[in-house]
Write a structure and sequence with these properties.
The complex is a heterodimer of chains A (384) and B (81). With 384 residues, chain A is mainly β. Helices cover 11% and strands 63% of the residues of chain A. Chain B has a domain of 26 residues. Classes of the chains: A mainly beta (384), B mainly alpha (81).
Amino acid sequence: MAATELWRCATAHTRRVLALLRSHRVAPAAQVLAVLGTALAATEAPAATLPEDQAEAMVHIYDADGLRATGPAVLVRKKLGSNVSLQGSYYVDQVSSASIDVVTTASPFKETRKEYTVGADYLVRDSILSVSTTHSSEPDYVARTVNVDVSQDMFGGMTTVALGYSRGSDNVGRKDVGFFDQARHWRYRLGVTQILSPTWLMTLNGEVVSDDGYLANPYRSARVGGAFVPENDPRTRSSRAVRVGTTATLAPGSAVHGGYRYFWDNWAIRAHTLEGGYSRYFGDKFLADWTVRLHSQGKALFYSDNALVDTVYLSRNRQLSTFKNLGLGAKLTYSAGKVGEYDVKLSAAYELLHFKYSDFTDIRTGNAYALNAHILQLFASATF
Amino acid sequence: MSIRLNLPAGMLLASALLLGGCSSLHSLEPWVKPYERERLADPIMLSSRNPLSAKHFEHVYEVREGARGANGVQGGGCGCN
């Protein structure tokens, strides 16, 4: 009933604003801005809140068929006064790779990637403005990213709208052969979270990503008639993704999560991702989560397991192939209570991720390739 | 009498309306009152409660799948190949 009233009121309001603007022959783009502007200013919502002061330390492991990536990660977030929150994080990936790509076309290697992020959130009434920058470096690849995000509570805190923009600039190379190139990335995102009832909320997310520059891997090979040749990807890519998600509490102390994402890009990849989860408390101390995730995608136009003829663009990157994967995860969190001024939680999370490729041959056996990946996270979190 | 407005003028009008707000929507009452949101405020309602954990999972998926984005997590960017 209330939702119907809200919809009726919102559409009537939009019609009135549009009629006013049309009567003054305002440009269409300006009409859109005006309607958005009035909607953003429409309510005197209670002020939004900054995230809690928090410190988090994690050890993560990814292990799959010859590739292992492990490392520590830490994050600290602290308020400065009542309107500003600062955050910084450090993330390490120590990669030891003897994956199928490596053992069939190159030599095993070890390398380390380090990522630093610093950022700030600024609270103004019911809006939060966030800026952050990330620097990631590894041998032959350096990536710098700047993120700007704004979120706004609306309709008495019933709706939260978030807009975000990221700009990335990468230096990519292969020093042993004197190859150096660049890649640039643009990401535009929109998110809406809507409270539907005292026990149910929904989210809608959309994101556009554009890339320009060297998007392949100078170490990876494609295959033509059984012979290996350097891969060559198009130098531009543009993708869209939309996701709808929902969370509901069935009974006090438990919640179910669900989500679906559809992805498409101009490399002809189409992907569906379905997620589900269930969370519940066990007493005062334990919280358990179970998750299931199913991903299915079609291949890029220029992907080939073993091409008949060499073409301008050709890749055997299995990330761009036709495959399905299934992830089954569980997480247990223990509330250790107050330790001094800190409220401490200890968590362990594990996910088994099974990949099944439709058109990527394991050339060691001649069969379609499949693998199991194990993801483990151990972390401690303190709020203060 | 008609008034012609270009895009900058339209944006100015939009800003004015933004600042002024709108009385029709001011009267809207949220149908879930703040005191009814106790269960929604429980951390259990968040699909991911830990930013580092979410970032790691997002990284794992993004470098191994052809799809990306719309997950509400910011990517850092890396070679990851």
